[in-house]
Amino acid sequence: MIRRFHPSDLAEVKEVFLENVPHYFALAEWDDLLAYLEKYSETYFVVEEAGIILGAGGFHFPELGIGRLSWDFFRQEAKGKGLGRKLIEHCLAELEKEKAFGRIEVWTSQRAHGFYGKFGFETVEIRKNFWAEGLDLYLMQREP
Q: Can you list the domains of the chain with their CATH numbers?
């Protein structure tokens, strides 16, 4: 089940986030996620099964004309089961209801850019060691 994030989910979301450090995220990014949730929690979701949060992700509008997918991650045992696809499709459907933007983007890394490519995102910029040493930024975009 995909549902809206609630502040009471924070401890469990942190647990899932930490499972993805250091392969997908740098530990220092946790503070960035907290700041993001303070500002954009109304468009952040969790994927829950049997009362356990398996993953999370959302979207926001960082500036006029841009919709951005943000902070998508899952527990290791939940990967490969199609839940990430369902979450991204949910976020894209919700984001596209807004129609207040000209493009959709995602800021990811070399470790996840292939996943977003399956949704029509194309890499437009790469910045080496952006997130942390060995963790590059892949700025990807697609039309709505």
A: 2-101 (3.40.630.30)
Cα gap 98→94, rounded to integer Å:
7
pLDDT at 64: 85
Q: Confirm if 16 and 74 have CB atoms less than 8 A apart.
A: yes
Residue type, 141: Q
Buried residues in 38-69 as b, exposed as e (16+ CB within 10 A) = eebbebbbbbbeeeebbbbbbbbeeeeeebbb
Neighbours of 128 (CB within 10 A): 10
- Other Cβ atoms less than 10 A from the Cβ of 107: the count is 17
CA distance 68 to 144: 11
Omega before 144 cis (within 30°)? no
pTM exceeding the 0.90 threshold for the entire prediction? yes
Look up tokens 């437009």; give the residue: 124
